[in-house]
Amino acid sequence: MTSVPDPGAVLEARDVHKSFRAHHVLRGADLRVAPGQLVGVVGENGSGKSTLLKTLAGTLPADRGEVRLSGSLGYCPQVPVLNHNLTVGQHLRYFAAAHRLPGLDRGRELIRRLGYEQYEEKPAGELSGGTLQKLNLTLALLHDPDVLLLDEPYQGFDWETYLHFWDLVEDLRERGRAVVIITHLVFEQDRFDRLEDLVGGRLEPRTVSGRDTHVNV
Amino acid sequence: MSTSEPRHAGTAPAFGQFPTALRFSLRNQTRNRMAALLLLVFVPVWYLLMSAMAGDESLRFKLYSTGEMLVVDGGRLTLISAGLNAITMITGFAVFDAVRKTLAFDRRLVFAGYRQSVLVAAKTLSVGLVTTAVAGYAALVLLVFWRPDLAGWASVLAGFTVIALTYGALGLLLGVLVKNDLEGFFLIIMGGLMDTFLQNPIGNPLANKPVLQWFPSFGPMQFGVGGAFADTALWGHLALGLTWSAGFCAAGLLIFRLRTRNAAARA
Predict the structure, then answer these.
(1) Which residues of A touch B109 (CB under 8 A)?
(2) What angle in degrees, to the nearest 10, is found between the helix axes of B116-145 and B235-260?
(3) Contact A67 B113 (CB under 8 A)
């Protein structure tokens, strides 16, 4: 394991190992993400995608290896982690307090762009699965982080929201934010700068992809 | 891991962490409809049933601080027991449910930059406020069935408040400790029933035995009964009850802190 950080990377994982008892989920995963890059991590069910993302996010300690992050981080878990008694607006205020934000402008803009402003006063317990996922994503984006880790972020989105989601990601990329999306299905490979397949606990850059995928490894 | 905020540095935060956490913790703990229903309906019904069951036969109740054996009205004594018991269930259940359901959410808040100590303080204060309100309500409803003098009623209120804080703290501890709802509910209901009913001499061979001193409701029951029937304020016993409360609370908050802390430190 080398400890010299890559100066161009905003997120870097080297030789990350993680086991759950005898089950070795990650066996030396490496990942490097530069500012403005959109990277897709693709793997089958049970391949360790969420374990990798939690390790990158720091919510799960790696057994071995190194994860380096420069700048702020936003993490959108696969299953929405929300408080069903609080309204959408109260979630915004709670997380604005967590991030010490000067206001709710960014949150309101995200709500508008994801098209659920009519639910701002509704408790999360009364929202549909798709709207919960929108709120889950909004909370991860609220502080406009340098690096975004998104675990299956468009699950439950209708087509229109799916397109809004990609508009948002494009906007983040243009502003130099690094985005890592973990998914078991890639519908449109050409949206990503790079795809990494999680196979056997390691990440392998996908070199052959459909259509006009551009690969910047 | 902390998600530092260089982009927002220098601008004043719009929402203070403590008032925001306190407000939303309170909201969260008062949204439990089942607990509200228990409070509004169960408390008076329980008083009614228990006092009807006990009748007005005289019972012998030992005050441990003085060694005195009081002869008291069984119905009234049972009202105190019933109030203590109802409070154990309602506060334990309400706090357990609220804490357990929001544990993952609290982790996310800490991950997003909430200071753990602020979250812990707000949660503790909110548990204290909600459980004290429950105790106040139970003591007010008691007046429908029995009018002790003011000092006596204040003693019962103090006993109720301490048991409410104790079982609120137990709810907090179980909320961060147990894996599923049923385990927690079972422990709260069985624990509360055993604890409070063993203190009452009605049909209970263990009553007035020294072993009862090791139960959480011992102090509040002694304080309430001492004040209501013997014009005595047993401060040491009230403090004993508060010690149970502080013990459960400290253990619960320690586990909460461990379970919401971030796994890795960042470079």
Answers:
(1) 94-95, 98
(2) 140
(3) no
Q: Report how far residue A13's alpha carbon sits from residue A54's, in angstroms, rounded to the nearest whole number.
A: 12
Q: What is the ipTM of this complex?
A: 0.87
Q: How many Cβ pairs closer than 8 A exist between chain A and B?
A: 109
Domain assignment present for residue B8? The answer is no
B203 domain-assigned? yes
For B187, the domain range is: 13-266
The whole-angstrom separation of Cα B92 and Cα A15 is 46
> Quick check: A28 and A202 in contact, CB under 8 A?
yes
Whether residue A46 is predicted with pLDDT greater than 80 in this model: the reply is yes
CA distance B119 to B142: 35
Alpha helices in B112-149, H assignment, sequence order? 116-145
* Proportion of chain A in helix, strand, coil states, percent, rounded to 5: 30, 25, 40
DSSP SS3 for A82:
coil
Count of the separate structural domains present in chain B:
1
pTM for this entry: 0.85
Q: What is the pLDDT of residues A80-126, one digit of tens each?
A: 999 999 999 999 999 999 999 999 999 999 999 999 999 999 999 99
**Positive or negative torsion for Cα B133, B137, B138, B142:** positive
Which of A 46-105 lie inside 8 A of B, CB atoms? Answer: 57-62, 67-75, 77, 81-86, 90, 93-104
User: Which among B170, B151, B159 is positioned nearest to B235, based on CA atoms?
Assistant: B159
The reply to whether B2 falls in a domain is: no
- Which chain B residues touch A61 with a CB distance below 8 Å? 263-264
Residue B8 to residue A100, Cβ atoms within 8 A: yes
Within-domain flag for B239: yes
